[in-house]
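Subject: complex prediction, re-run

Hi both,

The earlier run crashed halfway through, so I resubmitted it with identical inputs.
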Amino acid sequence: MTDKMIKKQSFTGKKVEILGETYEPGMPAEKGQWRKKLRNRKAMLKYLQSGERYWYLDADQWCGSERRKSKA
Amino acid sequence: MSEIGDKTVDAATRTMLEKAAGEGIETVFDRAEKMKPCPIGSEGSCCRNCAMGPCRIPAPKKKPKDPEKAKKRMGLCGATAETIAARNFARMIASGCAAHSDHGRGVAEVFVAAAKGEIPGYSIQDEQKLYQVAMDFGVEIGERDIKDIAIDVGEKALAEFGRQEGELAFIKRAPLKRQEIWRKLNIVPRGIDREVVEIMHRTHMGVDQDYRNLMLQGSRAALADGWGGSMVATELQDILFGTPVPLVSKINLGVLKEEDVNLIVHGHEPLLSEMIAAVSQDPEMIQMAQSVGAKGITVAGMCCTANEILMRHGFPIAGNFLQQELAITTGAVDAMIVDVQCIMENLVNVAKCYHTKLITTSPKAKIDGATHVEFDEHDAINTAKRIVRTAIENFPNRTSKVLIPDERTDIVAGFSHETINYLLGGIFRASYRPLNDNIINGRIRGIGGVVGCNNARTTHDSSHLTVVKELLKNDVIVLTTGCNAMACGKAGLLTPEAASKYCGEGLASVCETVGIPPVLHMGSCVDNSRILMAATAVVKDGGLGDDLSDVPAAGCAPEWMSEKAISIGQYFVASGVFTVFGVTFPIMGSEGMKDLLFNEFEETLGGKWAFEKDPEKMAKLMIEHIDKKRKALGIDKARERVLYDMEMRQKLDAA
Ligand code: SF4
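This time it finished cleanly. Structure:
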């Protein structure tokens, strides 16, 4: 799919061209099965440490509100 | 007699109330007019905890001038209005926690049996979620067989219920600061069942007679629900049946089809309804339905069972709590299958007036006069087949004129906290950051969790919709579950198109960019645990404080009625969330309890309750709280900047 560009007015009033919506029009017939993209144990565990890092990666390893706090 | 229009704002419900009235069917709406609530019980001033009572000590209509006189309000044993109200409230929490948690226990038992391969029909559907929960429980993953991991996870989950000491495992999911607050107050739940039992002990005649102390235990039991039993139910169900992902479906009584065999699954647990949903699509069953003259089979949900099969499979929803009797009144329901919770006993009387078979399935929840087909999880598929066959065989017995309202609305559901995380960032950079950034820059003012039941003492769905629409107008994104989610669905608020129609400019622009509805349906009432997780992710991502009580967020149950709602409300408050309830509030007879719940809790727990009947004022209270939190975070200025109009911006740029 080629990217759709749309013209909008910026906060300063200047006309700018920006990326338009990237989803397709209409109602999807299928479920958004994004979890099926995680195909094996390695990918699943890796996703837990990236996507679900809030709980499954040591807070010291990323910049959340709990970084460097002593463990509860 | 009030007009039908005063009873509901939902057109399908109005149509069915007219049909019911025409056919002489009495419903909860009629009984609510005939029987008024007891004024003493509703303010929490009635104690029946021993045989010297019941003692009723109603609050005086006018505040007594002499405070000593006020203190003299007491039961035979000397129990004060405070003690009586606190004991009643704590018992409501115990009952709510028990309901959610016993649901969780049932799932855990099936989970263990499924993991061991003892029950056909159930298997691991979400492997990744299994690893997630394994990490929470400290179960080794490595290269181990998935079956062994699942058995360990199931047994650890089951052990949470009977635990006697230590801390529930999911407590560690909460923000670190929140955990510290709980530990300081000594309210970290030790085990799920233990906290419920301890409430029953402490509220026995002559035990805990300090309302503050009683409410600390109430908080501990409520936390055992939200961060315990409910969370166990949600997580294990996700592993067994799949973590919800976005999908489209339809809602309202118009999803029933006159030409089909119609089954309604009603109640709360997905264990049987999952099987009924699957069996209904079996070609053998469809053929059988056709052999009796039907075109096919429609399975629709009601109450939280509906949310469960909607969230995971997209099955349509027939309606929320107050529509259960009316679904039968259509004359098109061939079987209504119920399990536990929120099932009105009067269904049996309404079903008798039509051909509908009311089928109870849980050994814990039978109804005199209903057909009982006991659900045996070891033979789940055959139980489901037996039930679907009963419905098919009943199709030719339709007696009354069928009237199915036209109303059916498109909805988008399936927003688990994991899915929101994914939608905001994609698989390689899943993150709550965009949400936090938009809260910080003011496009989104805050987060509203609007949940809970229907209540026949107030206009059906009206307060739900008023609160949600007010929040959206003020750029507050709404997370919803339960009957509120269904009210929103029927009113068209669960579609991305609702953003431009109902939201303030800031929230609309964010929803349009991401392509999400402004009201995110997160599931059933046990899935309020998903809201806790989403809010925790917001805290942990950073920039909005380091505790749930810092986040510009508030909760609300505008039309609550069940004891489960009180437990949910208390676990949100004990987690640091400002929570508003509508309709009625069961401690209003005690000045001390009012002060504790509406004020003091904010000092100790970080969250507090509010009670307000007017839905516009409920939303106002939530927005004021959100603004207070924005101010405390120093991001109130950011919001003001966003509201600058174009001309002001151009002037600023030119300066
Ligand atoms: S416990 Fe006390 S207040 Fe309650 S019924 Fe007995 S005597 Fe009355």
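Residues B 47-50, 52-55, 75-77, 79, 84, 205 surround iron/sulfur cluster (CB under 6 Å).

- K.
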